[in-house]
Amino acid sequence: MPVPSDDRFAPDDDAPIPYMARTREYYAAIGYSTPYRWAHYVEAPFQPLRKPLAQSRIALITTAAPFDPSKGDQGPGAKYNGGAKFYSVYDGDTSKTHDLRISHIAYDRVHTSAEDSGTWFPLPQLLRLAAEKRIGEVGPRFFGAPTNRSHRVTNETDAPEILARCRDDGVDAAVLVPNCPVCHQTIGLVARHLEANGIPTVVMGCAKDIVEHAAVPRFLFSDFPLGNSAGKPHDVPSQVFTLELALRVLETAPSAQTTVQSPLRWSVDPAWKRDYNNVAALSAEELARRRREFDAQKEIARTLRDTAA
């Protein structure tokens, strides 16, 4: 029997982006000497569904921020906007239309433009599934989880607050959708807390290494640029398929730390994976410029955080 030739293999870089390593190298390159410690667990809590999804009330948890025209450019392709960040859990009425955006976080600004909120906020799709009786109903509120680099604050403040609101709303399970690298960690920690306290969860995300490092109960991985955890932009069939697959993971995962990879591909050419925070592709001048921009945004965020406190 002939052996397949190597030219049938995928390119070497057609693998999930190593976001933790890229982020560590990137911040070292722009001058930060202390590496960030990502949340890491070797086991995860696991709560089976207590009733069929067709009878379940589902909560949606997001890291996207409500649009506020007073906070600068938050439109498609906007630069990282620390002024649009939020620092405490918020909620929104799921019976209303919402304009949520992701300019306040580090999504992939090269390969996606943040034009279609359906890629990061699948509330319309959840409402459709409720109308079709695929799920019992959508919870009366969705919840915003602050993108917090502090494990302690997420674990001790934000996750318990989201749990309390989920309990107030009588939800049976939760779908969690992160965007940037730190968002994936935040959402992973929230999922762990909900699950440990009786609420089954599924995380829909694009940063496989970060989510699995944090050890979540159930994870649907889409190998897409950050900012597209709920499907491809302007591609409703992709968004429908991605949410349905997430719900199947929620229903059928046999145990904790179940990861399912979506079969959908962003593009035939995996070259886009080489770009995100890749210091090998950045000049010294570009790294210095990014350091200046990051310091400026950090100061804006610090002021807002102090004001919020």
UniProtKB/TrEMBL annotation:
GO MF terms held by the record: oxidoreductase activity, acting on X-H and Y-H to form an X-Y bond, with a disulfide as acceptor
Name under which the protein is recorded: Glycine/sarcosine/betaine reductase selenoprotein B (GRDB)
Organism: Bradyrhizobium erythrophlei
